[in-house]
Fold:
Amino acid sequence: MGGDISVIGGADGPTAIFLAGQWGSLFFIAALVIMAIFYGIYFAKKIAQKRKGIQTTQLGHGKEKTVRTIEIIMSAATLLIVPAELVSILYEWNTVQMPVRMAGVVLGLTGDLIFLIAVLTMRDSWRAGIPETDRTELVSRGIYQYSRNPAFLGFDLMYIGILLMYFNWILLLFTIWAVVMLHLQILQEEKYLETVFDEEYRVYRNHTGRYFGRKKKREV
Structure:
């Protein structure tokens, strides 16, 4: 918690330690709340779809080797980053100062909000992994007008937010691993969407950014 103590104005000695401890408690609570909201959304959506007979998680089941490998490794990355985050939070593994940690809180909460909006907008078309048998609609309304992958963007912002709140080299490596694997999954899903939706998806891709932003319409 040394980074926090150096930020506390003119306080020193026991006062600085006390103030740093108070900020540490706030970040502890904020980090756990951010994670609880995010995974609460994920599992609530999964349960709701299961009740409708929809298999939400379709990662690594009977697919082409490259796709299956990426989905399995991505699953491992997104699973293993959770204990890395929790250990960092519980043991206060942090080497950055308070302004950076505050930015992490903002990013984490933003990731939660974007993920929630993405999941609600997708309705019953939302899947974790490339569906082999399901045929869902191409969603391009709402938040999907501004991002082709807002759910993945929500994951990334949540991960980076927790990293900034509890920056350490171990968590950095897990975060990079998870973000890279999510990006590779996006590339695989783009190939799938182009195959299934053909010109409809290409038009959508040409107008909407992979992570965020609208593109100018190309002249024909």
